């Protein structure tokens, strides 16, 4: 595959399909959020919703990580995290966050790709639309619309 810095979908796909590391424990998630540079130009994408056309402001990224952290801890009824993945746990450029209410089999052998899409993506590269195979629940749509400050 030819490498081109102007071909952003290829760069996005390289991150999306590339090697990602799991944040295994809740205390690691707390430390991980502190390593996310909120002002680094993050695209915040709720899979199944409209693809963002521009990076979010730093205060919106901070709000997103804070609210999403609360949602994950409230709804992922496990004593471990393991639903947040990043290309680099110390200086992330790409983060996949799985929805605790739509996990299915999000992990598996490296020979088989997961059919479960993440609930949210944080990317410094403009994302492309990911095709949902399921339904985004009304609860998740309302959470995202509320986050964006849209009328619910």
Strand order of the largest sheet: 1-3-4-5-2
Number of helices: 4
Helix/strand order, N-terminal first: HEHEHEEEH
Rg, rounded, reads 15 Å
Largest sheet: 5 strands, antiparallel
Condensed summary:
The protein has helices spanning 8-17, 26-35, 58-75, 138-148, and strands spanning 21-23, 43-46, 84-86, 94-97, 120-123. With 152 residues, it is an alpha+beta fold. Helix 2 (26-35) packs antiparallel against helix 3.
What does this structure look like?
The protein has about 150 residues and is an alpha+beta fold. It contains four helices and five strands. Strands 1-3-4-5-2 form a five-stranded antiparallel sheet. A hairpin with a 7-residue loop joins strand 3 and strand 4. The longest helix is centred in the middle third of the chain and has 18 residues, at about 60-75. The protein is globular, with a radius of gyration of 15 Å. Residues about 1-5 and about 105-115 have low confidence and may be disordered.
Give a quick set of tags describing it:
single chain, 152 residues, alpha+beta, five-stranded antiparallel β-sheet, 4 helices, disordered N terminus
Topology summary:
Elements: H1 8-17, E1 21-23, H2 26-35, E2 43-46, H3 58-75, E3 84-86, E4 94-97, E5 120-123, H4 138-148
Antiparallel strand pairs: 1-3, 2-5, 3-4, 4-5
Helix pairs in contact: 2-3
